[in-house]
Amino acid sequence: RICSPRNSSAPWTAFIFIRRSHPPAVSGRRHEAQMPPRDVALTSFQEVQRFGRVYTGGKVSVSHDAELIVCMCGEKLSVIEAKSGALLFSVDSAADELTSFALHPCSHELVAATRSRQLQRCVLNVDGRSAETVHVWKAHRMSVLDLTYEQTGTLVASASADTTVMVFDVIKGFCSHVLRGHTAPVHRVLFGRAEGRRLQLFSAAADHAVRIWDLKSKGCVG
């Protein structure tokens, strides 16, 4: 559960709750009429962990091994230890504030986008509580609104307010696809597999269209 503060500009607070299956104790004859039937289970929740003020809205992701939680916090990313709820460190950019990110599906690594339309690939050092930027490159003509990894971690797709979708080979460091067809800002992208295991990319935009892209032919197929 993520709770919003009264001041919308302040960081949000995340909680973890456990459910209690036993009903609260009720005693006295005057309460007997208010008690539910015995076969109706009452539930209540007890707070067991609080993550603190580390989130200001936007994307939240869990690492492949469920050890880390990464979320937006103002102009930075918060990297949280899932087991303890402790803030390990923050990821930022020397150039500008961060607008979106995607976690690697197989390792402690991420790609983040900045307000100045740069993409940066970072390796998360949990033991050293730091992030090392290993590659930075320019992407779209307008803000990047979403990022997603392909399941092997080789490709990253980006959605932009300039109505295009781009695909990058993050290992070799080049753009492999520029997909055009939307007529409004693209808000979401997601990789998938078609029949025959052919790699596809799904995109959703403010033009109320969801498009399916075949990466081999570089065309829209749905």
UniProtKB/TrEMBL annotation:
It comes from Calcidiscus leptoporus. WD repeats lie at residues 137-170, 179-222. PROSITE patterns: WD_REPEATS_1 (PS00678), WD_REPEATS_2 (PS50082), WD_REPEATS_REGION (PS50294). This is Guanine nucleotide-binding protein subunit beta-like protein. The keyword Repeat applies. SMART domains: WD40. Pfam families: WD40. InterPro entries: WD40/YVTN_repeat-like_dom_sf, WD40_repeat_CS, WD40_repeat_dom_sf, WD40_rpt. Keywords: Repeat, WD repeat. It comes from the Eukaryota. Gene3D superfamilies: YVTN repeat-like/Quinoprotein amine dehydrogenase. SUPFAM superfamilies: WD40 repeat-like. Signal peptide: none annotated. PANTHER family: F-BOX AND WD REPEAT DOMAIN CONTAINING 7, WD40 REPEAT PROTEIN.
